[in-house]
Amino acid sequence: MLALLAWWQWPRHSASAAIAAVPVNAGHAVVADFPIRVAAVGTVQALNTVDVKVRVDGQLQHVAFSEGQDVEFGQLLAQLDQGPLTAQLRQAEAAQRKDQASLENAQLDLARFSKLVGIGAATSQSVDTARAQVKALAATVAADAALVQSDRLQLGFTTLTAPLTGRVGAREADIGAIVHPTDTTGVVTVTQMEPIDVLFSVPQDVLPDLLANQAKAPLPVSVTTRTDGEALAQGSLVFIDSQVDPTTGQIKLKASFANTDRKLWPGELVNARVLVQTDLQRVAVPSRAVVNTQAGTQLFVLAPDDKVEMRAVQTGVSVDGMTEIKSGIKAGDLIVFDGQSRLNPGVRVAATIVSANAQASAAAPTTNMDAPS
Fold first, then answer.
1. Which residues contact 99 (CB under 8 A, 6 or more apart)?
2. d(CA 368, CA 372)
3. Dist. CA 8–CA 10, nearest whole Å
4. Bond preceding residue 163 cis, omega within 30 of 0
């Protein structure tokens, strides 16, 4: 009797007892837009960089800027000694006045000879000689005027002004130094900061899409830092090169940025991303939900009885942790997002429902131009 009671109370498990459900994170496939971008490393370039040089020989007498200062177009930068060229101008003006006086006297002589020849008191030859003298002196006065104008220009060249609005660099000449137009360096370099360009190259495979979409409207371009990916600026594509580099298979692009906050600096290396196009209203799941098998890409789909099945799918582009699903599922299907490593077809799961976007944010952002087959 005791043996029968012990057998009755001994723990027993039916062969048909339910196997413990596998905990997973799951959610519904959503409809999302996919911005297709092309990323590349770019270099910030100023639109204009001018090394301000002298146009006449002279001694640097005054510097009117501080290194690193912002300057406006036409602002005084430096001044050369004006003494020698001022004296040269005054000498030319004096020669012009002298020759002008001689011209006026010759004109009076011509008038007198012209009257006298009418009454026979002068010869025609004397009138011709006087007329020639007037013409010669008129040419001399014209040459004097040109020389005066040239000297005034030379004197004006002793004043150096900013050729554009921008930022000056380090001073390249010291006060008191004798500077020449033939010097390899000038007085200072002025760099335009606003607007500014970013030059970068992308693979030739994206060129057809770039050309087609750029023809509709300038494509948006965003830039971030090379280190921590901090957003720096938003601009637009302004230039697509006329030829592909045959050695690299890359084509050069240039984007323009207002840069009013000066976050972009000439010569800086940045990450540039061109928004080529946006695929609208595509079925999507978090990229980590996609399982790559020897049979291709698949998803674990939950059935109403809480069991999973593997379904072959065709994927498209992946952007910021989300992958486009071209075929195999539809929006609203319940998909296993995380925990696939413990699953096999037909296994019962205990699903924790999560948002697809929240699950995608846990994955590293990725952007692909070419959709997998």
1. 137, 140, 141, 144
2. 9
3. 6
4. no
Closest CA to 46 of 237, 274, 268, 227: 268
Phi, psi at residue 205, to the nearest 5°?
-65, -25
Alpha-carbon radius of gyration of the chain: 42
What are the phi and psi torsion angles at 207 (to 5°)?
-60, -45
Complete edge-to-edge strand list for the sheet that includes strand 166-168: 49-52, 188-191, 166-168, 70-71
189 with 45: CB under 8 angstroms? no
What is the b/e burial string over 121-132, where b = at least 16 CB atoms within 10 angstroms of the residue's CB? ebeeebbeebbe
Three-state secondary-structure class, residue 300: strand
Instruction: State residue 306's pLDDT score.
Output: 86
Q: Is residue 290 a contact partner of residue 29, using CB atoms and an 8 Å limit?
A: no
Q: Identify the residue whose tokens are 């992308």.
A: 202
Residues 135-144: tens digit of each pLDDT: 999 999 999 9
Give residue-wise pLDDT tens across range 106-151: 888 888 877 777 776 667 787 788 889 889 999 999 999 999 999 9
Compute CA 198 distance to the chain's CA centroid, rounded to the nearest angstrom.
Answer: 2
Residue listed under structure tokens 């596998």: 22
Q: What is the DSSP letter of 186?
A: -
**Model pTM score:** 0.73
Q: Which residues contact 280 (CB under 8 A, 6 or more apart)?
A: 33
Listed as ranges, residues in the chain with pLDDT below 50 are 1-2, 4-8, 13-17, 364-373
In 3D space, the residue among 297, 266, 282, 121 whose CA is nearest the CA of residue 192 turns out to be 266
> CA angle, 10 as apex, 6 and 11 as ends, to 5°?
170
CB 80 within 8 A of CB 58: yes
